[in-house]
Design a protein that fits this description.
By secondary structure, the chain is mainly alpha-helical. It has four domains: about 1-125, no CATH class; about 145-390, no CATH class; about 400-495, no CATH class; about 500-575, no CATH class. The chain has 29 helices and eight strands. It has helices at about 1-25, 35-45, 55-70, 75-95, 105-130, 130-135, 145-150, 160-165, 170-180, 195-205, 225-235, 265-270, 285-290, 295-305, 315-325, 330-340, 345-355, 370-380, 400-405, 410-420, 425-435, 445-455, 460-470, 475-485, 495-510, 515-520, 525-535, 545-555, 560-575; strands at about 155, 185, 240-245, 250, 310, 360, 365-370, 390. A hairpin with a 2-residue loop joins strand 6 (about 360) and strand 7 (about 365-370). It is globular and about 90 Å long. Keywords: Coiled coil.
């Protein structure tokens, strides 16, 4: 069976790579990666021809085979039907739906008919289920969630430094060179993306060595250059290569300008290719053993993170070897095969991670770079795992400080503020904080946080408060603090200023939940006092005024308050028009 899987996978690979290029433009809502298992089992169990599809094949593949082989039934339930629909459309529109196939409309109608049954089948997989241990894959981060959550604060470097490092990433340069070699328009083949002569040219263009001749003469050149196809796929991920037609690709116009001048553009490109870490997984002659080591690169990354960025390479290798063996009955065989093929089972992992700027290796130590920490934190976030990662104090902007501090316990927020202040003159710090608070009039929490921090600076903040009088969202705070400091000619807070402060308080409490919101309304006083306030507060041009009045009408238990809120809401909307 392994030989059949290998042969089918090799036969399908060029077609799937072409589909991956086609999908972003023609089926952007589908996930091309999900179609692979369905297409593979179509070839193995339903059809001797990869391009011949009949409606009965769909039932065989989706209802008979997928429940037995799918690794993530929830993911399949959400995306496999759209992915197969896109793939069949691709075959039809590119002329690759072979003679003897049913018409596309017939196939798509059958997909619609099968969808409910497929969803039920996926539910049954969960029910019969694989428990978490059985469903776990080598590259899962979830088993490390507790250890990641317990890590001390991870400090991330500023964008300007990360962008400078990303400009030096070797794989990005190599990928650019490949895309430029491809040129503005190049036809891709049916059996292999490139012909043998083109493959040799491409290898020279990116500096990859020519592969040795196949011992048995049966393995094609295209099958012997997996490193080239990894770079090709990365070029697609980075959008350095774009589909130009059904069977044509070309370099994006901006690719030759890499590395870009703008830091944000540089980091956007680098992040686009971050999922390429999976290309570091070993590719073995045996397809089944290759699948066994799927996720090895991510497994190395998460262990580096848990170790706070540094491991002995030998110890990491031994730990991963044990993890592979524990996870899969073929793990020991797969590890041995990777060691034999590459000399070190982690060779491709280290090569790819180093090439993408994520690690350095010095002697026996493997270490995450600043880009590496940034990348792993993004991957951890993608996995919905909590991690305490913040900008380094020396790189933390005032807005960073305000945003993070709002979510921290008071003692920890105070320590963060003190460390940030140690690098600044108080008057300048006050200006930075107030300017950051003024960036978004709708962010009441950041505004209150800034006012509290600046208020703690006393007389050193007077000049900053005086400048803040000119900013409508900060004037109420500035007038209040200047008056409290006894500053000459300080404007007395107006009724509108007081009402703005109340609306900010209500905005924050509304974000905490219904109970906290109602409690903040009761803080105003009896229902009659609140109703009187509502009769005048509607005049304040606060960004959350209307939604707050609507929420008061729904949440307050007193009917008279509810009526007053509705009257105020009507007046606010009428005056806005």
């Amino acid at each position: 069976m392994t030989d059949r899987i290998e042969a089918a996978a090799a036969e399908l690979r060029p077609l799937l790579q072409e589909f991956i290029l086609w999908a972003p433009e023609h089926a952007p809502d589908s996930d091309p990666d999900l179609v692979g298992p369905a297409v593979l089992w179509h070839r193995l169990a339903a059809s001797p021809h990869i391009g011949r599809w009949r409606r009965t094949d769909l039932r065989t593949v989706l209802l008979d085979r997928m429940p037995q082989v799918i690794e993530d039934p929830q993911e399949a339930a959400e995306g496999m039907i759209p992915a197969v629909r896109a793939y069949l459309t691709f075959l039809s529109e590119t002329g690759k739906l072979a003679d003897g196939s049913d018409k596309l409309d017939t196939l798509l109608d059958e997909l619609d008919e099968l969808e409910d049954d497929f969803l039920e089948a996926m539910d049954d997989v969960d029910y019969d289920g694989e428990d978490d241990d059985e469903a776990e894959s080598l590259g899962d981060f979830e088993p490390f969630a507790d250890a990641i959550g317990a890590l001390p604060t991870i400090r991330l470097r500023p964008d300007v430094e990360l962008a400078a490092a990303a400009r030096q990433v070797p794989l990005l340069t190599t990928t650019r060179d490949l895309a430029i070699w491809v040129g503005p328009s190049r036809k891709i083949g049916d059996e292999s993306l490139l012909g043998d002569a083109e493959i040799m040219e491409a290898l020279r263009a990116v500096g990859l060595p020519e592969p040795p001749p196949a011992a048995d003469g049966e393995i094609s050149l295209a099958q012997r250059v997996p490193a080239l196809w990894n770079i090709w796929n990365l070029a697609v991920d980075l959008e350095f290569l774009l589909p130009q037609g059904d069977d044509t690709v070309g370099v994006d116009d901006d690719t030759a300008a890499w590395p870009f001048d703008d830091d944000e553009d540089v980091l956007d490109v680098w992040l686009l290719g971050l999922q390429s870490v999976d290309y570091g997984d070993p590719e073995l002659d045996d397809e089944e053993l290759t699948l066994t080591l799927s996720g090895l690169t991510r497994a190395a990354l998460v262990r580096l993170l848990v170790a706070q960025g540094s491991r002995d390479l030998g110890e990491l290798r031994a730990e991963l070897e044990e993890a592979v063996a524990d996870l899969d009955d073929l793990g020991a065989d797969a590890w041995a095969a990777a060691t034999e093929q590459y000399g070190d089972a982690l060779a491709t992992v280290v090569e790819w991670l180093r090439g993408y700027g994520l690690i350095t290796v010095k002697g026996d130590e493997i270490r995450l770079t600043p880009l590496g920490f940034e990348g792993v934190i993004h991957l951890v976030d993608d996995a919905d795992i909590e991690v305490d990662a913040r900008p380094s104090i020396d790189a933390m902007t005032a807005l960073d400080l305000l945003s993070f501090s709002a979510e921290l316990p008071e003692e920890e927020a105070d320590a963060e503020f003190a460390a940030w202040m140690a690098l600044r003159e108080p008057g300048q710090a006050a200006r930075e904080l107030l300017l950051a608070a003024a960036e978004d009039d709708a962010d009441a929490l950041v505004r209150v946080q800034a006012a509290s921090m600046v208020g703690s600076l006393g007389d050193d903040a007077v000049a900053a408060w005086q400048e803040a009088l000119k900013i409508s969202s900060l004037r109420p705070y500035a007038a209040t603090h200047l008056t409290q400091l006894g500053v000459d000619d300080a404007p007395e807070p107006t009724q509108a200023d007081t009402h703005w402060l109340i609306l900010d308080m209500w905005t924050i409490s509304a974000g905490l939940g219904r109970q906290e919101f109602v409690s903040s309304l009761h803080d105003i006083g009896p229902a009659a006092d609140l109703s009187n306030l509502l009769d005048v507060i509607w005049k304040v041009r606060h960004p959350h005024l209307e939604e707050l009045l609507e929420a008061i009408g729904q949440a307050h238990p007193d009917r008279q308050v509810g009526k007053a809120a509705k009257r105020a809401l009507f007046k606010a909307r009428s005056s806005a028009n």
